[in-house]
Amino acid sequence: MELSVLLLLALVTGLVILLARGHPKARGHLPPGPRPLPFFGNLLQMDRGGLLKSFQRLRDKYGDVFTVYLGPRPVVILYGTEAIREALVDQAEAFSGRGKIAVVDQVFQGYGVVFANGERWKALRRFSLATMRDFGMGKRSVEERIQEEAQCLVEELRKSQGALQDPTSIFHSITANIICSIVFGKRFAYRDPDFLRLLDIFYQTFTLISSFSSQVFELFSDFLKYFPGRTQANLQKHAGSQRLHWPQRGEAQGDPGPRRPRDFIDTYLLRMDKEKSHPNSEFHHQNLLNTVLSLFFAGTETTSTTLRYGFLLMLKYPHIAEKVHKEIDQVIGSHRPPALDDRAKMPYTDAVIHEIQRFGDLIPIGVPHVVIKDTNFRGYIIPKDTEVYPILHSALFDSRYFDTPDTFNPNHFLDANGALTKNEAFMPFSVGKRICLGEGIARAELFLFFTTILQNFSVASPVAPEDIDLTPRECGVGKLPPVYQIRFLSR
């Protein structure tokens, strides 16, 4: 059904509810915001450019903490570094609930480590962190996995012989293979058809989450979910990806294998077997399925998209790429692969990667939180179960912390002596109890993949640097760089 027809139906339904119910009543003492209409909420105050632009404009009027109604439900918006840190760090427990992203809620339904809440979330997060550490996170073994994958990448890029290519698929493949090695205990060939099909599903889903139509769906999800259309078709496609995991490691379902588990799935199944007599155990197949799905989605899309932004920026600013080449040559040379120990000796390259993450602004409105109890915040009372949006864009582009926030500038992370500096506004992985559990892996991947590529290749574009357009392809919950072509030329 066309979006315009759905909106018309929504308007008609809203008018009926408007006549039946009158004005909505907020619970507690919420922060200020524009007056909502029944059912429609603050639809009339929303910018055609999407939710982020709407929140930016409302912040100018209502301050750093305000309330908007997305359809019939109130959402508290946290805007700016201080407001986000006060909530997610200083009152971490109160703001530790996870809200819903409507477009994928029918897939996850509150299961899996990313979208779970309460004791389910605590049990799955503890298990996931411990297991990922056992299989390499925070240890040298994950570094070795990434280094091996980086060398496979170099071989693949050499085969292209400098031909123009869209880097999307190759960046997806290398980041997914790191998760595969932890979850399934193996990597997959870059042209494996099942592997490529799985990666395409994740890419299309992230594209949908980042789209304008998903933002409309967020406003009226309780109504629009009953109508067929692009969103529902994609949800069915995404659900199919759940079945796609098991053929790759299917033997694990029935038999955990040796007492020494081989991977994340083995470890989970052993735990599930251990707790099978506990009727309220959270270790069951639905949580396994959605946890694996969460790890793949978060571990593949975020890092691969950051790499795509990074190399587009290197094409746009070749003088910065040249400085990175110089530092790589001085610190690493050409006769050994980059290692994580090199990062401390390469402040400029590290600053460039930080700035890629900041400027790339991958999850601009943040993943929704929920307060788990009635919460006093800056003199307001936020009722239990109220959704909270920490606008990460507002921190990453905070002019109080970055001199030229709208400009790509690695000096944002360097002091007067050229040393790397910490910045409180730098929170691409969010902050607090819900910070991305794969942050360590992602940071290692970004450094090792980025430096290995630039150690072996220079990059070129058919478009002059001044003509390269950085305008994102989509910008919603997620942000996607424009499609572009690049040459990897052997150095």
UniProtKB/TrEMBL annotation:
Its GO CC terms? endoplasmic reticulum membrane
Q: Does the keyword Kinase apply?
A: no
Q: Does the keyword Signal apply?
A: yes
UniProt: heme binding residues: 436
Q: Which UniProt keywords apply?
A: Endoplasmic reticulum, Heme, Iron, Membrane, Metal-binding, Microsome, Monooxygenase, Oxidoreductase, Signal
Q: What EC class does the entry list?
A: oxidoreductase
SUPFAM superfamilies given in the database record: Cytochrome P450 (SSF48264)
**Cofactors (names):** heme
Q: What is its main location?
A: endoplasmic reticulum
What are the subcellular locations of this protein? Endoplasmic reticulum membrane; Microsome membrane
Where are the annotated segments for Disordered?
239-261
Query: Which processes are annotated in GO (biological process)?
Result: epoxygenase P450 pathway; xenobiotic metabolic process
Which InterPro entries does this UniProt record tie to the protein? Cyt_P450 (IPR001128), Cyt_P450_CS (IPR017972), Cyt_P450_E_grp-I (IPR002401), Cyt_P450_E_grp-I_CYP2B-like (IPR008068), Cyt_P450_sf (IPR036396), Cytochrome_P450_fam2 (IPR050182)
Might you give the EC number(s) for this enzyme?
Answer: 1.14.14.1
Signal peptide stretch: 1-22
Entry function? Cytochromes P450 are a group of heme-thiolate monooxygenases. In liver microsomes, this enzyme is involved in an NADPH-dependent electron transport pathway. It oxidizes a variety of structurally unrelated compounds, including steroids, fatty acids, and xenobiotics.
| Family that this chain belongs to | Belongs to the cytochrome P450 family.
Q: What is this protein called?
A: Cytochrome P450
> Organism, per UniProt?
Cnephaeus nilssonii (Northern bat)
